[in-house]
Records
---
Amino acid sequence: MSVNDPRLADKSVFPDPVYKETVLKPLFDGAKTHHVESFRRIDRAHLVMLTETGILDEKQASAIAGALEQIDRDIDPASLTYTGEVEDFFFLIEKELKSRLGADIAGRLHTARSRNDIDHTLFKLGLKEHIDILLAKSRHLLNAMIETANREQATLIVAYTHGQPAQPSTFGHYLSAAIEVLIRDMQRFATAREIVNLSPMGAAAITTSGFPIDRARVADLLGFAAPLRNSYSCIAASDYITSTYSAIELMFIHLGRLIQDFQFWTSFEVGQIYVPNAFVQISSIMPQKRNPVPIEHMRHLASQTMGRARTVLDVIHNTPFTDMNDSEGETQQMGYEAFASAGRVLDLLAAFVQAIRIDPARVADNIRRSCITITELADSLVRIEGLSFRQAHEIAATVAKAVVAKGGGLAQDGYEPFLEAFKHAAGREPSFDRTKFEELVSPEHFIAVRDRFGGPAPEPMAEALTAYRDQANAFASLADTQAADEAKAARELNDKFQALVEKR
């Protein structure tokens, strides 16, 4: 192969102008916007490891450390304009090192590494930061929902199935269901973070290196839990990306369903939720309107977040199991937009959940008109009168039809139809009077007797809220531990690097 063979890349040749503007410049701009600090950390950690393993002597390492520090002082990445003189941000730093140290010393920093392992390490460092911010916002939402569920654990609501009034429950019990889904979504995020938190450094191009590198040391200095074991996986797998964006997609599918319920519950016809004026916009023409538009913004932002996460997954779908640009710079940058809209939803939903209140008058009227306590009448006939459930169900259905036809309420208008239906079905009088009937069909009684594990009665609700608080505390404790570990790693890296600088 001759030196003029077209298969040999010539780094001295400027790129095609269109290629420069459409690919190289956007990638360079993305790197200087999102990854400068991670580049610095990787260079420093790799240099410390090369020194500790004896691959570089201290004199060489000290010269490189001093030059890296000087570059940091001399160059403001934000002010850089891509010219095409170098291919990317990595080669810019290498060029700057050569101008200060000469090619021999400058080139030694890249011993036993590649842009392949550097890139995926950059992306993982960036994702960890974004995940941690999103998990912090998720914890804030979780605590807001737990606080509201505790405040509203006895507040009656109408629970719907298939868009129709079904049974009475409490707002606290409803929110508890959403809390459990959020906890599971946060656990998926925590699992994704564990996958992200494994260092690719030392994989080099794809098969590691013949030099006696210490991959675990670099992982430790960069604040990773450990190196990712298989070097091919470090470069090819990309499941740290799919795990992260799958977790985002699921979380915002689930939160979108909660938000949609709030939209339905605030409609004029239902009116179950009262939204304070601070979360309401008025119409420019219709003076009677109170529009709870934050719900709409949460809904479309949740959908945008889900769609952005899905786009990242679609980009990686059907890509080869090898190093490829599809999972790298521009896809990573596009994914950050999902985190941005996700954070807005979490912040707004946390504030909204704490601010809204249930309208007890509307709930009481909806319960009255819909006869949704009738299930407990059927259950009580089984327990008190010894009827089969099917027989009791038929009696209760007859009563409900009569009350709805009259446009009345079960407690006020249901006793006479009940007496008639019971006598017809059982051939005798019931053993309880009107007062007991009214108690049996009251929403308060309905809630109180549903005291099984997971039910809306006070005892299971108290147990559930304790469990949710314990889980919230566990998430917070894990975050504190992770933050402390990474701060410790950052301090050690800085100390080791500065020690090299001072030996010049």
---
Amino acid sequence: MNHEALRLYEYHVWANEKVFQRLQEVPEGVSEQEVPSVFPTITQTLAHILKTDYVWLWL
């Protein structure tokens, strides 16, 4: 793996860890509450991230 690819992978891991840490702070039920944003809920935002990861990492 070239150095740039490794650096990007390490950033990806770091960023996901930060997201998971913050999600642990979210009270139960809040992830489905609608908010004025690009994606109406936290769950829909996470689904978008997962789908994007799938496209970039496995296709």
---
Amino acid sequence: MTANQRLVVMLYALHPTDRSGAVLEAAANLAKLVGMAPPVFSSTRKQVIEAGWLEETERIGHIRHYRLDPKRLGESVVVPLRRAT
């Protein structure tokens, strides 16, 4: 993982999120927080998505929201089933 990729992952890990874990901040603002030009941030975020660290949670028009992949955080995404009695 490159330094820029680590910055993006850490930004998504530490930035405030909604209930689903999605960061709702605009990409341009996120880029500014880590000192990247918006095009660099966008391409780096794409690399992080392709590596499986981020996932898209929702799309509102042309705006996409992302969160850290829960599997990468060690969270169980499988709900155990139990027999109805």
---
Amino acid sequence: MRWAHRNRPAHPVVIATAAHNAPAVRVAEGLGFERVLERVHEGVPEVLYRSTALLR
């Protein structure tokens, strides 16, 4: 994430995971990612998270 924020600051870091994947959801939220979209992708409910804070 540090590399992404340093080298591509105009592009957020995004996490996509199956909605039922509770461990991945906890990691995304624990890292401070913001839930921005819920959708069905290839028949599987999915959630997308976007980074909200710049890392230094």
